[in-house]
Design goal:
By secondary structure, the chain is α/β, with parallel strands linked by helices. It contains 15 helices and 13 strands.
Length: about 475
């Protein structure tokens, strides 16, 4: 147990030491109000600039001012509703850019919809409205970006704090140091702290001492809140701390520990008086699945159309070299572990499809002369475009393995089965990152699975397009294909 007050406070045990204190302490509410007011000023300034440029067109000016007034009312409301002025998002440049742009689009969308319903849209100058939309949007995004960068730099330098907190923690000093660094990084100044050893059976006495620490901090300086770090698994200890701090005139936050944090970060669903946390969701929601399916159908259809001459020539070449069958069919597991029959151009003299399947190796005698070329250029994979059209596969996703290999690796790699959370792909994130071909040991397959899981957790249409482009470039020079 130890008290760790700030050295600038009268109750500090190190009163003689100096400390790099923030030179500017901004109340969060004041900063948020100033930012909102500046947004209104910039919206008006953009209108004034365009009005001055269009001074010779009074009708256009009237249209512009009506648009300005409408947007000036909607934009701040959209920012507030979407958390654009949220305290923890102010120093985050990406957060500010996204929310400002979205709120501006929402404001203009609502204004346009209102004009349509009132049948007054045809009377507005499209050039003036579009000019105002562009100028105002760029100005607001640039302003929020500048404010965010300014705040971030000064918070990092210890020159600005947005909130002042007293920390009460049941934690080791090293754990407290981690918490403090996180808080400081978000602009929260820790003015005093009271640590309690984690191995204490009861914290009733320490809870009273923590209350005294907070009272001393309140007497010495302004404090905005009390932050309590306590293990949620011990409800008695947390309850004693909260009960002791209850008489103090400050908001008290019980911070989530790691196990609780993992649960609370999940989506919360309500069922009347009951609610639960979604510990595992479908990797892709309905919108994502529809977008991915549309991309698959588009790419597969175009590829089959463009590559049809190559497909026909390849089929004839296989027929001339080794005869039938032209296509190799093998059972694989797809989405949810459902079986399907994968199609490939036959490149080997065998057609293994049983409980034992030997992976192709470099210099494998089972690979035909034409098969080496087909495998080197990945032409043998092209019939899987039909699997994509059938809905059994996707253009991008974890590569499906023979069922015999699935059975083998599911026993060796705990997360292996997670690969079936999406449809398998003709190409994938693992393949474009060099994890293609034979997996001689479990470590190689673990690396492939890690890449597949990263793809599933970070999927986007842009990621699929990136993989498609990387695959096209890799086909030209891929030494791992044999």
């Amino acid at each position: 147990m130890s008290d760790i007050p700030r050295p600038d406070l009268p109750f500090s045990s190190r009163a003689g030491e100096s400390s790099p204190l923030p030179k500017l302490r901004l109340r969060a509410e004041l900063l948020q109000c100033l930012l909102l007011a500046s947004d209104l000023v910039l919206i008006g300034a953009a209108g004034l600039v365009l009005a001055a440029l269009l001074s010779g067109q009074p009708d256009v000016q009237d249209d512009l001012w009506s648009v300005f007034c409408t947007v000036a009312l909607i934009f701040p409301a959209a920012m507030l509703a979407k958390g654009g002025y949220r305290l923890d998002g102010l120093p985050d440049a990406g957060h500010q850019i996204r929310h400002t742009a979205r709120a501006w689009l929402v404001a203009f969308g609502i204004a346009a919809w209102a004009a349509f319903l009132l049948k007054i849209g045809s009377s507005y100058s499209r050039v003036a409205v579009l000019s105002y939309f562009t100028l105002g949007g760029v100005t607001l995004v640039a302003w929020h970006l500048a404010v965010s960068v300014w705040l971030r730099r000064r918070i990092d330098a210890g020159l600005v704090s947005l909130r002042r907190a007293v920390v009460v923690a049941i934690a080791e000093p090293s754990e407290y140091d981690h918490h403090r660094r996180v808080l400081v990084d978000r602009g929260i100044e820790v003015v005093a702290a009271h640590l309690i050893a984690p191995n204490l059976g009861t914290v009733s006495v320490e809870a009273l001492r923590a209350c005294q620490t907070v009272r001393a901090a309140l007497a010495a300086t302004r404090c905005d809140l009390i932050m309590v770090f306590a293990p949620w698994s011990d409800q008695r200890q947390a309850g004693e701390l909260l009960a002791a701090l209850a008489p103090l005139p400050l908001p008290v936050l019980l911070m989530a520990d790691k196990p609780a944090g993992r649960i609370l970060r999940q989506n919360r669903l309500r069922f009347g008086p009951l609610f639960g946390f979604e510990m595992q969701r479908a990797p892709l929601d309905r919108t994502d699945r529809a977008a991915k399916r549309l991309l698959d159908l588009t790419v597969a259809s175009l590829a089959l159309l463009i590559l049809s001459p190559l497909l026909v020539l390849t089929g004839f070449a296989i027929l001339l070299e080794t005869g039938r069958p032209i296509l190799f069919r093998q059972h694989r597991r797809g989405f949810g572990g459902r079986r399907f029959e994968i199609l490939k151009f036959r490149s080997m003299t065998v057609q293994e499809n049983g409980p034992t399947v030997l992976q192709a190796q470099r210099g494998d005698p089972r690979v035909t002369r034409l098969g080496r070329l087909l495998r080197k250029t990945s032409v043998d994979e092209l019939p899987q475009l039909v699997n994509v059209l059938r809905g059994e596969m996707s253009i991008c996703g974890p590569r499906p393995h023979a069922i015999a290999h699935d059975n083998q690796y599911e026993e060796l790699i705990a997360t292996y089965a997670y690969r079936h959370h999406v449809k398998p792909g003709i190409t994938g994130w693992a393949q474009v990152n060099g994890l293609r071909g034979e997996t001689r040991d479990v470590a190689l397959m673990e690396a492939r699975v890690d890449h597949d899981l990263w793809y599933i957790n970070n999927w986007s249409i842009w990621l699929d397009l990136r993989i498609i482009v990387m695959t096209a470039l890799k086909v030209v020079n891929d030494r791992q294909a044999y």
